[in-house]
């Protein structure tokens, strides 16, 4: 069922959760690399911040557009 503008339904939340898991892959790789001292710690925090912004932007986009 399509969602109205400025609303979220179960389908929207399921797609958002799937995207959040997909986006988590590269962030986890960088975090593991920073634990192993392959990547600087500053870079790992930047990747975490970008992940959070990406997930929040995806949710905001799904909320603001209706289908």
Question: How does this structure look, described?
Answer:
By secondary structure, this protein is mainly alpha-helical. It has one domain. 75% of the residues lie in helices and 0% in strands. It is built from 2 helices and no strands. The chain has helices spanning 10-35, 41-64. Helix 1 runs antiparallel to helix 2 (41-64). It starts with 9 loop residues before the first helix and ends with a helix. The mean pLDDT is 92.
- How far is it from the N-terminal to the C-terminal residue, by CA? 9 Å
Order of helices and strands: HH
Radius of gyration: 15 Å
Decide which structural class fits the backbone. mainly alpha
Mean pLDDT: 92
Note the overall shape: elongated
| Count of alpha and pi helical runs | 2
Report the biggest beta sheet as strand number plus sense, adding barrel if it closes: none
- Tell me the domain tally: 1
β-strand percent reads: under 5%
Number of strands: 0
Ranges where pLDDT stays below 50 over 5 or more residues in a row are none
Determine the fraction of residues in helical runs and give it as a percent range.
over 70%
Secondary-structure map with pairings?
Blueprint lengths: L9 H26 L5 H24 L3
Helix pairs in contact: 1-2
Give me a quick take on this structure.
The protein has 67 residues and is mainly α. The chain contains two helices and no strands.
Looking at this protein, list some descriptive labels.
67 residues; mainly alpha
